[in-house]
Amino acid sequence: MDLMVEGVSIALQRGEELAYPARRISFTVKPGEFLGLVGESGSGKSLTMLALLGLESCSPGVVEGRVRYRSEQGQLYPLEGLSHYVRWHGGLPRKRTAAWQRTVYRRMKPLLGRRIAIILQDAHKTLNPFLRIEDQLLEMVARQGRADAEKAGWWGRWRQRRSIHQQLRQEALRLLKALHFRDPERVLRAYPHQLSGGMAQRVSLALALASRPEFIILDEPTTGLDVTLQAALVDLIRQLKQERRLSGIIVSHDLMFVGKVTERMAIMFSGELWEIGPTHNVIHPDFPWKHPYTSYLLSFARQKRRGSAGPAFQNVLWQRPKQGCPLRKSCPVYLHQLDMEQRRQCDSADPSPVPVFPEHYIRCWQYAWEEQKHAAGY
Amino acid sequence: MQPVIEVQNLSKNFTIRYREDWRVYTYSKQAVRNVSFSVFPGEILAIVGESGSGKTTLGKMMVNLVRPSSGQILLNGQPVQRLSQRRFQPLRHLIQMVFQNPYASLNPMMTVREHLEEALRLADVTDPHAIEQEIQQLTQLVKLSPQVLTEYPDQLSGGECRRVNLARILARRPRILILDEPVASLDFAIKQIIVDLLLELHQKLGLTYIWISHDLEIVQAVAHRILVMFDGEILEEIPRDGSRRDGCGHPYTEILFTAAHRLHTWEQEDFSTLGAVLPQPTAGTTMASRERGCRFRSFCQRYRTIGRPKLCRETPPRFKTVSQNHLVRCHFPWIENPEVTPK
Ligand SMILES: Nc1ncnc2c1ncn2[C@@H]1O[C@H](COP(=O)(O)OP(=O)(O)OP(=O)(O)O)[C@@H](O)[C@H]1O
Ligand code: SF4
Ligand SMILES: [Mg+2]
């Protein structure tokens, strides 16, 4: 249902010290709503998603802030407990004990892979190379069947015992057909290496949908899909949103694809969010308030190819300046439009999010000044 | 001009076997059906098409990683489809393939430098001094920064990973490269950089490319010829310019271009009309049952609008030359309302 992320920072072990590939990320995803997370590669999008779910590959994980997930029944789950490190008031992050980890995982078990599904960028990482697609998909379908049976009491359990293989297969076939496979029977019998890139991608989508999640995280879902399938995916997501009130996050750099399926969009660069707001406003060319980095991304997407969209923004993920706005070294507005007074402001402090529209925040000093003028009654 | 690759009536059948109740069942799939085309030196030939339509299989057959079921592949006039791996070895200098998943083709236990060294050793460069020089040259050629050399594949970004793959393959100095989705899942900026790099290499080293891709925009910009594949068959061959000026085209290509056009606008589009090529959950149309007539017809909008003619039902269409270098495999290649299709 909804996910609330408040001021999350993520740490990575880099040699002796910790590095912060994502800082002070905040957003919320409401029921039946998708959030698009857009940015160029290397801006830490996928890593943020993995860390939010406490996936092992990016330990330490979340060291600051809160992540809460509210399930359909209104139960709150604090997801930040999944991370391997904890940070006490101002101190350095400290590793949590294994016993803590075990308790947290036991508590989270009903959540991950059931209520919340994640699809990784590389489909072949999701699929087990030693099992036929059938075995993997039926496992997910059956698990959901079991959960339904638990809810249904003894009668359900009795039926469950009789719910034969065939029934599960029908369900699996239905899923594969919904993902536009021409010959789902053959796909069920195949091993992952016998599928093409786009087919593996769709199978991993089917695996995620088989558990009937409430919340789904899609990392680059269009990789390897041809344009007709991309269009079909747009349709499918819209349909799921309507039917099941599915919500989720789509991580992608395809602005136009994300613009078609999401309600809100967040722009990420260098491990920080710079703008978050209604999709329509963020990508609309005539919307007057834009972060300089958003304008840069849009101009890139717009002219499609050839020519330059202006000099590139410098990624300062690993060499973040101590003071001031981290983007100013490569920001065209800072370099060409601001006077000395204004530049000094950019040099001195990090901008904080400014509301420019209901639920639309931009982190840039330009809009902070407008805001101040406004408040002063100009 | 003599073609460097000539593919004649190439087919590939895959079978999937499984045992259940002490019996063996098989599913067979014809991934590539009777495909013929030729590639000329210095050309960029693009292959676009549906996911699972056999593009990768076709590429793998050309580099002798998959054995064709029938048909012929001529490399510089020499038939290679029956060569063993060892006999094919000398030809690997001629043709190389860059795979779809860049991470999967690198060994996670080896640094980038080790990958390049291994490739150079295979190219018979043994002198350590020469190896060092070659590595320098290669990294410069693909514009990799020297720090990357000590890193492991999982530390590389997508763009870097592709460049490492390219460098490794260029170490063997091939003349023909098969690029399987060279720019998939890269963002705008990096995509542009890689495309520019590939075009530069094409100019500088005089390479021939077979460019497999889903990105119609890039393909239209770079390719000299485009082949459109659907379910193992080539349906259309589009020359570079004036691609659609003659007002002809295959219905599938039309669908592809319409979808691309609609996806690449900022408006909230409705895609329900594209359902025609994508089997609906209940329909369950299988292509295999359609051995007579045009195999595309159950998905063909044009077939329906012109009243299901007998020709489509009975005779499989052959390639029709509709204008110079523009071949369409359809009995009725004329587009009724050309303004729907871009270009
Ligand atoms: N080793 C194999 N065994 C059985 N079937 C296979 C094998 N390799 C590929 N196939 C089948 O052959 C067909 C074509 O696969 P191929 O990888 O060539 O598609 P593709 O055009 O590259 O698609 P994509 O764009 O999704 O990568 C698919 O239906 C696939 O399932
Ligand atoms: S031959 Fe007929 S059915 Fe086949 S693509 Fe052309 S119009 Fe459609
Ligand atoms: Mg492929």
Describe the protein's topology.
The complex is a heterodimer of chains A (378) and B (343).
Chain A: E1 2-14, E2 17-29, E3 34-38, H1 45-52, E4 60-70, E5 76-78, E6 85-87, E7 93-95, H2 98-108, E8 116-119, H3 123-126, H4 133-162, H5 165-178, H6 184-189, H7 197-210, E9 215-219, H8 227-244, E10 247-252, H9 255-261, E11 264-269, E12 272-278, H10 279-283, H11 292-303, H12 332-336, H13 340-348, E13 354-357, E14 360-362, H14 365-376
Parallel strand pairs in A: 3-10, 3-11, 8-9, 9-10
Antiparallel strand pairs in A: 1-2, 1-4, 4-5, 6-7, 11-12, 12-14, 13-14
Chain B: E1 5-20, E2 23-39, E3 44-49, H1 55-62, E4 70-75, E5 78-79, H2 85-88, E6 95-98, H3 112-122, H4 128-141, H5 158-170, E7 176-180, H6 188-205, E8 208-212, H7 216-222, E9 225-230, E10 233-239, H8 251-263, H9 301-305, H10 310-314, E11 320-323, E12 326-328
Parallel strand pairs in B: 3-8, 3-9, 6-7, 7-8
Antiparallel strand pairs in B: 1-2, 1-4, 4-5, 9-10, 10-12, 11-12
Residues 251, 294, 296-297, 300, 302-303, 312, 317, 330-332 of chain B line the site of iron/sulfur cluster.
Provide an overview of this structure.
The complex is a heterodimer of chains A (378) and B (343). Chain A is built from 14 helices and 14 strands. Chain A is α/β, with parallel strands linked by helices and 378 residues long. Chain A is 41% helix and 23% strand. Chain A has two domains: 2-115 and 214-324, Rossmann fold (3-Layer(aba) Sandwich), CATH 3.40.50.300; 129-212. In chain A, strand 1 (2-14) and strand 2 (17-29) form a beta hairpin. The mean pLDDT of chain A is 81. Helices cover 29% and strands 24% of the residues of chain B. Chain B has a domain at 251-329. Chain B has ten helices and twelve strands. An eight-stranded mixed beta sheet of chain B has the order 6-7-8-3-9-10-12-11, sandwiched between helices. Chain B has a four-stranded antiparallel beta sheet with strand order 2-1-4-5. The chains are: A alpha/beta (378), B alpha/beta (343). Chains A and B meet through helix 5, helix 6, helix 7, helix 8 and helix 9 of A and strand 1, strand 2, helix 6, helix 7 and helix 8 of B. Bound molecules: adenosine-5'-triphosphate, iron/sulfur cluster and magnesium ion (MG). The site of magnesium ion has 4 residues of chain B, from helix 1.
